[in-house]
Amino acid sequence: MQNPLSTRLLAIDALRGLVIIIMLLDHVRETFYLHYQVPDPMQIESTDPALFFSRSLAHLCAPVFVLLTGISAYLYQSKVQSLKMTREFLIKRGLFLIFLELVIINFAWTGQFPPEIVYLQVIWAIGISMLALAALIHLPILWIWIISVLIIAFHNVFDQLYPNSAFLQALWNILHQRGWIEFSEHFKVRTSYPVLPWIGVIGFGYALGKTVFSRPDNFAVKMQFLYRVGLGCIGLFLILRMLNLYGDQPREVFSNFSLTLMSFFNLTKYPPSLDFILWNCGLGLILLYALQRVENRSWIKPLVIFGSVPMFFYIVHLFVLKLLYVFAVFIFGINHGSYFGVDHVSTLWWISLILCLALYPLMLSFSRFKHQNKHIAILKYL
């Protein structure tokens, strides 16, 4: 009989692999569709529905990554049976991710070293969230639940808070408000991913993992519980969105049904609103349940492979996209203002599919290398 822990990890890797592929699509958009940039939230009346769908689909990525990081932290703790080792792992990995964001990933995006602008994006947010979780895991589980739910549910209350001093404004930009921190005329930081809501999400994932996987129920019952939590998140999202009073920017009703539907799902990501978190974390938990039920299907393997080497894929695909863009400009030149870009959203999907097929052999080889060399400490972080 298969070990429940290995089954659990297989489903988590498969889900992580799925959102990695979706993330690739969004980064292809950010590379070859820069001439049609979308704000947050999107301007739906001037946004092509295909672009709106592609961008909204990509919203699933960050919440699922952070949620799974919290769940995986508890699974690691249950494996090593040590709160101290778990705390040390979270601190080391969190600092490693912050280093990657500041040095490697920023260079992959901008091509500048030393940089004039540093973008604090999703890897930074996950790293900071892991450091915060390292502090939280010593608390009773009830307190972790309370803190996480309070952050997720009520951080939108402070959307219009603007501190008076430059120091407090910079701190608030890191925690909750997307903005700029200027250190000098030639160096500034963009807080693309304010971290406070993500700390709530990672705490929610850890608390959920500990609540579910420490229960004496069989594995199927545990997965059913996660499924019901996912449905509950979706249900609460639908209620809040219908009430249109709190949780995100108000939805609008148009004479055109498709625009009304787009407005309903036009959610704020920076920082992630309550509605954004409920919808995407709910979908993530439902997908986790669904993938676990089909774990023996052969088509799951590529998802598991991609999901088993998430950071390696993240770094590699950014440099591949940068090289492809430089090559495209060299061959075709600039064709959309100051950018080279493709003309149709469908082309972005085709590029993403080709890149998935091209990168899979490398990911498979690295996954095998990682599995065969578990004694190499740094491989745990890739």
From TrEMBL:
<feature type="transmembrane region" description="Helical">
    <location>
        <begin position="89"/>
        <end position="111"/>
    </location>
</feature>
<keyword id="KW-0812">Transmembrane</keyword>
<feature type="transmembrane region" description="Helical">
    <location>
        <begin position="57"/>
        <end position="77"/>
    </location>
</feature>
<feature type="transmembrane region" description="Helical">
    <location>
        <begin position="195"/>
        <end position="213"/>
    </location>
</feature>
<keyword id="KW-1133">Transmembrane helix</keyword>
<feature type="domain" description="Heparan-alpha-glucosaminide N-acetyltransferase catalytic">
    <location>
        <begin position="8"/>
        <end position="220"/>
    </location>
</feature>
<feature type="transmembrane region" description="Helical">
    <location>
        <begin position="270"/>
        <end position="291"/>
    </location>
</feature>
<feature type="transmembrane region" description="Helical">
    <location>
        <begin position="347"/>
        <end position="366"/>
    </location>
</feature>
<keyword id="KW-0472">Membrane</keyword>
<protein>
    <recommendedName>
        <fullName>Heparan-alpha-glucosaminide N-acetyltransferase catalytic domain-containing protein</fullName>
    </recommendedName>
</protein>
<feature type="transmembrane region" description="Helical">
    <location>
        <begin position="141"/>
        <end position="158"/>
    </location>
</feature>
<feature type="transmembrane region" description="Helical">
    <location>
        <begin position="225"/>
        <end position="243"/>
    </location>
</feature>
<feature type="transmembrane region" description="Helical">
    <location>
        <begin position="117"/>
        <end position="136"/>
    </location>
</feature>
<dbReference type="Pfam" id="PF07786">
    <property type="entry name" value="HGSNAT_cat"/>
</dbReference>
<dbReference type="InterPro" id="IPR012429">
    <property type="entry name" value="HGSNAT_cat"/>
</dbReference>
<feature type="transmembrane region" description="Helical">
    <location>
        <begin position="312"/>
        <end position="335"/>
    </location>
</feature>
